[in-house]
Input
Amino acid sequence: MRDLDDIKPERPDQGFQFPGAFEITAIGRAEADLERRVPEILAGLGLNVILGSLRSRPSREGNY
Output
């Protein structure tokens, strides 16, 4: 398998390149436990979360 950093688009106007690494943003209520659920959902689809890449930021009032 090629190193992901070595994969470049064949044409400048080309969209997503597969395989690849893609950033996903999930927004939901604080009690939704997205920090646990999103990686579980992705794993169920056969996708991996890059170790150390998960981050979260609560809303100002802590609701989201």
